[in-house]
Amino acid sequence: MTVTEEAPKIGFGSHRRVEDARFIRGRGNYVDDVQLPGMLHGAILRSPFAHAKIVSIDTSAAEAHPKVKAVITGKVLETLNLAWMPTMSYDTQAVLATDKVRFQGQEVAFVVAEDRYSARDALELIEVEYEPLPVVADAKRALDPDAPVIRDDKEGKTDNHIFDWEAGDKAKTDEAFANAEVVVAEDVLYPRSHPAPLETCGIVADMDKVTGKLTIWCNTQAPHAHRTVYALVAGLPEQKLRIIAPDIGGGFGNKVPVYPGYVCAIVGSIVTGKPVKWVEDRSENLVSTGFARDYHMHGEIAATRDGKILATRVNVLADHGAFNATAQPSKYPSGFFHIFTGSYDYPASYCKVTGVYTNKAPGGVAYACSFRITEAVYLIERMIDVLARKLNMDPAELRMKNLIRPEQFPYRTPTGWEYDSGDYPRALREAMRIAGYEDLRREQAEKRARGELMGIGISFFTEGVGAGPRKHMDILGLGMADGAELRIHPTGKAVLRISVQTQGQGHETTYAQIVSHELGIPVTDIEVVHGDTDQTPFGLGTYGSRSTPVSGAATAMVARKVRERARIVAAAMLEVSVDDLEWEAGRFYVRGDVEKGKTIQEIALAAHSSLELPEGVEGHLDATCVYNPPNLTYPFGAYIAVVDVDPGTGVVKVRRFIAVDDCGTRINPMIVEGQIHGGLADGVGMALMQVMAFDSEGNHLGASFMDYLLPTALECPSWELGATVTPSPHHPLGAKGVGESATVGSPAAIVNAVIDALAPYGVEHIDMPLTPANVWSAIQGRPLRTDLAL
Amino acid sequence: MEITVRVNGVSYTRDVEPRLLLVHFLRDELGLTGTHWGCDTSNCGVCTVQVDGKPVKSCTMLAVMADGRDVLTVEGLEQDGKLDPIQEGFSVCHGLQCGFCTPGMMLTAKALLRENPNPSEQEIREAISGNLCRCTGYENIVRSVRWAAEHQASTTEGVSA
Question: Quick check: A424 pLDDT over 50?
Fold first, then answer.
């Protein structure tokens, strides 16, 4: 969507972004752009082995380097009680390894030097003697009785089991399966991937020893949560901690956790008394920071012969790596995976998830996954196509037959979610209309007759985003509510302070539009302050598509508080009762006398003046608010992919991609569409090329962009978007989150399209990524295992 | 060793280590932090600048190789308070989100437009295929470059937002 010059300057609409002015001039301020006087640079020595005992570490040569200021090892951190840190899943993670290393790329030592080149030079001078140990590279072997125990640091630990978790009604589900006319089953892997934002993770830590104030610049998606974590972990007084999240070069979940490098940089600053910058390189980013997915799923559907779904049953083996460091609400060790029942109406479902340790990097919840909904949607949408193939039914018809109907909302799912609103058949019909579905099927039949491989794939998703209601959702005990503060200056200009932090979503524009919509103040008169814990109210940050559902709601509510105060002031100005006033775009007027009124700007000035206000009414218009969402919001959408496959090479070309999204009210449609575009490209990457595989020694086979492939402009088609709007009843603006919808919904459409194209060869499933080699092998009847190179 | 590099029309003479990368020379020595760094392997393109008018990934060029040459970075695109059409196009068409790939993307696109003032969508996609973007799915970047092609000659108002 191109913005016209007539773009609205008040309220909602495709308003040009405030942020752009600095970014197009190269005037952004990313963490690596931060330069402080006397600043030192850190670098991390990492393990070359996936599993090995550390026999000795000799840092003497590195310490003798003329430009090195400090060398920190796990032994040093042990003296500070910082060798280990808690993860967001109540496990522990080594900051710097002391006893042994548990994945390739694990942090072993930290060097602080005068410049970044010297810090790297000094890493070469550190001598570490390792004693290699047997490796668990295959999650399916992690629970074997003879598997080496990875977490022998945990007292009494004799296996690699982390948790078992279940949802749904097992007995009811088993009964439905026992009596079903048709049952289909498939093993479906969502392979390990990485969000790979183009800016890697980094920090500048600056401890002022005189004031005791620790200032941290860090590209974190959750600055307030980080502040509290540092306070709890390191015993630092929270009022002396200031986290500044400057401009962030993409996050996608990669920048939620606290990483060992951050702790090392903080310790480095405390030890040296100087600011210390640490910015990881690309390989470090890929091998050590929050990966995503790695779910080995076995899905089953029970149905009638005419295609009515009766039940679903799922068993998951979840590879969590060497430390259980997934970041999701505490009660949900498998995130929101149990939303896998999808967009369909049926009575019974059950899932069991088993988490295991392997010799791989920690993480798992990242990459625009909406807390594992990506895995859930991929599974159910792949399985629906498996069922359609079995029943010889058109996959669109099978979906239409089972979609939850509009009159069933709010809809309670078999695993306990309450979907807020939707008109699913309308969205699917709209996608099919844009695609020209019947024509595509005709074209496909003609091509098949000529031996050409064309496929059409559908995916229908429902997401639950905007975590979340405090009584159900917390991270490390911190309830997932978010604050907002709104100041109205005497001249009617506004400053909004929010807890969430943008990584490209355009918060400075969207949130100004929300205030503008509620108060009638021009968007350009509203400044949005974010990303600085000293300047903004507490809140849990931006991930899981939660900003608009939670912080956007907080913004609307705080603006409404201001408006109600303004009503009192206007009544005093006009010498009428508050009940006699009507509100219209930016102005209170007396009912029945439209001419007699006061604008929000006039009211703001009066609120700061000597105007006499009713007893008990404070002056000014400033307000604060904390928003505790009553429910998640449930965006949904229907996606259709059209692919061509070269049978000679296995190359897949995504020819068309149609995406109809319903995210409720759209505050800035241009930004919403941009978010969807980005997620669709993620789907192309995930479906066709992105994977982090390992060899049997635990060597990472995707440690650079030479090996971990990301989609370019050439692999992405021109996206064809459509929209339906079903407002959420659980959000003051009717808005739903959208940031992750397309990443969640799109991979299944592409994979389904490729499997559809390969139907003449009898191919029923191929695991992602559908690389040319993988597709070609499947055509030969030998599909590859994509997570391992054995 | 001592080098003299002309950057955005200004000559800078510095004594640098032979191993210093051009991207670090621009960022750390000259303070021109609009050029970003993203991958070390020439794959992502966020460090793209123009050297003698050609797009170059500055993470794989040594600063000493730029001795005596003309470098254009994002900071040099705006002339006399007037945005380059490529900058204007990216803002008008929402061709950026986090902004990290944007400088390199614009310098690649500007080089394309110099050689091919009226590129097709496919030609644009091929030209920017060495520059990754993780936010936009490329759709609006392609539109931004088209917008710039259509507005090459005219001058436009600055984005004051």
Answer: yes
